[in-house]
Specification:
Blueprint (H helix, E strand, L loop, with lengths): L3 H15 E15 L2 E20 L2 H13 L5 E5 L11 E6 L2 H11 L7 H20 L8 H14 L16 H4 L1
Antiparallel strand pairs: 1-2, 2-4, 3-4
């Protein structure tokens, strides 16, 4: 039986290796006014904090879900059938969380154990705290502060892949301090 710290460290490691901690811009086509759904002529940009974990191993995902459930963190899970599009890909499960309160709780729990995704977690946690504060005051509810927009841009830079066109071999079997 694992201790709570061991479980949270495992979950942080799972997110470091297989997960995503990000803020995504989305363009919404609908607004709700007086409870009625209206189509917007000019879609507005919405920033969405998102935690995602994807893996092909069902027992891996079941363990992640068990730990999240234990801490009252709501997520939704989707089975993705990928082998229909490409025979080389396996089916996988995708776990997603977009609720601000759940993201805040999750990141606060695993933050001490994160390694590679710690900078993203810091930015998303700052974004989530700012959004929760803005929404609690009903101040700027749909709009975003300059800081929130800056956090989204910073995380986009951190998560960007393929920026480095060349790589350098440090040594065949690097020690931890050689990589950092």
């Amino acid at each position: 039986m694992k201790t709570e710290k061991e479980e949270l460290a495992w979950l942080a490691g799972a997110w470091d290796g297989e997960g995503s901690i990000s803020i995504f811009p989305r363009f919404e086509r609908y607004r709700y006014r007086n409870g009625e759904k209206e189509i917007e002529k000019n879609p507005f940009r919405k920033l969405t904090a998102t935690l995602t974990l994807v893996n092909t191993e069902q027992s891996f995902m079941a363990e992640a879900i068990r730990i999240l459930d234990k801490h009252g963190i709501a997520v939704w899970v989707q089975e993705r059938k990928l082998n229909k599009r490409n025979k080389n890909h396996s089916d996988c499960w995708q776990l997603v969380c977009r609720k601000l309160e759940a993201i805040k709780k999750f990141l606060e729990l695993i933050f001490p154990y994160l390694i590679s995704k710690k900078p993203q977690a810091d930015l998303v946690l700052r974004f989530v705290n700012s959004r929760l504060e803005q929404l609690s005051k009903r101040k700027n509810g749909l709009g975003y502060t300059e800081e929130e927009q800056s956090l989204e841009q910073q995380i986009r830079i951190l998560n960007k892949r393929g920026q480095n066109e060349s790589s350098t071999t440090i040594r065949q079997t690097p020690k931890g301090e050689d990589i950092v």
